[in-house]
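hey
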């Protein structure tokens, strides 16, 4: 089987001037540079359609063999959010207080001011858990191999975060470890593995964030390594 056996269509592409490209690039960078992970939320409601749009946006992300190996599970039910909070806090308590985390890890987290208490998991109007589909299923129920599922889910998570920020909502990438409790509470099948938990909502009126800075361009990029001089 070759590419000729599958339909193709013309690419929808709008070419822009360099001036417009730079303007759009700087505007997008400036917007995302304002993004911060938030741990203090208020309980104001967020319409479901905004979460739906963020998930649709995330699902435009590229994925291995276009298999889109992700499932976004959205939770607004207070009872379910309470179960998630209680289970997450217990796992985090063990990590912080019973030695799961090394001293080096704890020192790395110190500037962020985190601990095992996660009250925002009840405060936020929405919790969205992103699951990686380790494998899928064909129509007959047989197992379907997924390619680059972890990488694909990571890219989709980035799109999701950007979409939420663009529309004016805040979130946090919460990854309690281990995360199996999320599969149990949310009744997910064996082929799905919890990847990231996103609390989503508006920041508290008095919300604060750590006074930290991002790395400079020269600290995160390398240009033309090995290029001959002259």
């Amino acid at each position: 089987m070759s590419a000729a056996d599958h339909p193709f269509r013309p690419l929808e592409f709008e070419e822009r001037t360099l001036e417009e490209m730079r303007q759009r690039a700087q505007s997008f960078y400036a917007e995302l540079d304002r993004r911060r992970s938030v741990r203090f939320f208020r309980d104001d409601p967020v319409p479901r359609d905004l979460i739906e749009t963020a998930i649709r946006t995330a699902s435009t992300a590229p994925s291995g063999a276009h298999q889109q190996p992700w499932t976004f599970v959205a939770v607004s039910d207070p009872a379910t959010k309470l179960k998630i909070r209680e289970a997450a806090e217990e796992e985090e308590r063990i990590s912080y207080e019973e030695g799961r985390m090394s001293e080096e890890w704890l020192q790395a987290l110190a500037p962020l001011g985190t601990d095992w208490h996660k009250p925002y998991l009840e405060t936020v109007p929405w919790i969205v858990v992103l699951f990686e589909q380790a494998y899928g299923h064909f129509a007959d129920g047989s197992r379907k191999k997924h390619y680059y599922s972890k990488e694909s889910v990571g890219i989709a998570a980035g799109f999701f975060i950007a979409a939420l920020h663009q529309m004016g909502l805040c979130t946090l990438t919460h990854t309690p470890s281990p995360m199996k409790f999320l599969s149990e509470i949310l009744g997910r099948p064996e082929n799905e593995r919890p990847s990231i938990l996103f609390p989503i909502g508006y920041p508290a009126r008095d919300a604060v964030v750590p006074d930290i800075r991002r790395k400079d361009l020269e600290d995160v990029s390398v240009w033309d390594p090995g290029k001959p001089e002259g």
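The domain at 36-205 is CATH 3.40.109.10 (NADH Oxidase). The chain has one domain: 36-205.
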